[in-house]
Amino acid sequence: GAGVSQSPSNKVTEKGKDVELRCDPISGHTALYWYRQSLGQGLEFLIYFQGNSAPDKSGLPSDRFSAERTGGSVSTLTIQRTQQEDSAVYLCASSLLAGGPDIQYFGAGTRLSVL
Amino acid sequence: AQKVTQAQTEISVVEKEDVTLDCVYETRDTTYYLFWYKQPPSGELVFLIRRNSFDEQNEISGRYSWNFQKSTSSFNFTITASQVVDSAVYFCALSGRNAGNNRKLIWGLGTSLGVNP
């Protein structure tokens, strides 16, 4: 696609429910990142995928968070047993990884509200 | 440790004023990259510029200019003749230390710029 696409744009859920957030990166981009942005805060790195390499999961805040990337393209971030502190905007970015630190291109994000 | 500091949390200016957004970074890497991104109210981060540590030339793009000074570990961003459409949160970021092929950006907390008509 023309840009990074994320769905849904907004998600309201009840505490304890599981949610899935989707990211469709720019076609041909081999790297994909998930970030979390809480109100008034900067970007918190969650997880990074690069081609067939093992993902860098070092930013996942707890074992309730997981992500997968199927076929090197679409990625799904899953949050199990959501808590109110999970409320944030979840941003996805992709990059070409053509050499040198990459320019990351971002989607519009998914705003998650846990009631 | 790598760190990016944007000391200005919020700035408010009147249209047509010039404004400078500060970014100070810390890194022990000799090769690194610095970035600026803009996040308008719509929420989508927009890439503005990438600069590598070996290129200290200032850069100008229209009303935007960037001043990179390794001696003070700063990469400041100036908007000349600001416009209402410049209202956004601006983030400065630093390329982190590579672990294998992984690359992460270290982000500042952002500066919220409001340009009033």
In short:
The complex is a heterodimer of chains A (115) and B (117). Chain A has strands at residues 5-7, 10-13, 19-24, 31-37, 44-50, 65-69, 75-79, 88-95, 105-106, 110-114.
**Helicity of chain B, in percent?**
under 10%
Which residues of chain B form runs of ≥5 with pLDDT under 50?
none
Order of helices and strands of chain B: EEEEEEEEEEEE
The two chains with the largest interface, and their residue counts, are:
A-B, 24 and 25 residues
Give the assembly state of these chains: heterodimer
Ends distance of chain B: 41 Å
Point out poorly predicted stretches of chain A.
Answer: none
Structural class of chain B: mainly beta
The chain-level mean pLDDT of chain A equals 91
Strand content of chain A: over 45%
Q: Helical segment tally of chain B? A: 0
Task: Decide which structural class fits the backbone of chain A.
Answer: mainly beta
Number of strands of chain B: 12
In percent terms, what proportion of residues of chain B is strand?
A: over 45%
Helical region count of chain A?
A: 0
Q: What is the helix fraction of residues of chain A, given as a range?
A: under 10%
For the largest beta-sheet of chain B, the strand count, sense and barrel status come to: 6 strands, mixed
Q: Biggest β-sheet of chain A, characterized?
A: 6 strands, mixed
The best one-word shape of chain A is: globular
Over all CA atoms, what is the radius of gyration of chain B?
14 Å
Count of beta strands of chain A: 10
